[in-house]
Amino acid sequence: MANKTSKKDYAPAGGRERAVRVLTSIITAGLISLAMLAVLTFVSVRFNMPQTAVMTAVNAIYALGVTICGILAARRASHGGLLCGAGAGIIYAVLLYLIGCAVSGHIGFSAAALTGAGAALICGGIGGVIGINMKKR
To answer: Where do the domains of the chain lie?
Structure first.
């Protein structure tokens, strides 16, 4: 049986296509994270969760959202999943940071912001490796 894959299937994405893929992955991961935060809000109010448990859950949702962003960004890439996922994760983290600054009215760098950026880089990279290795359908 002949292999029916063309060279186009393995060609690297152009700049515009890559940017659209990263943007849609960021939007999708953001919507998924927003849905998870809505569920967390309901659960925390309903069951009167302690503040430390809520913050732990928020951090887990952040890490999961960045990982999903990396998976989605690298899923259609032909190569470079680690860099693609890490890049998408950093962009996702920067956008969340800017939104947080806009909402709070305070712009400042802290150890928590740097830790969040490091977590985004690692989780996005892991997501990129997962995404690039997923079966293309």
So the answer is: 15-133
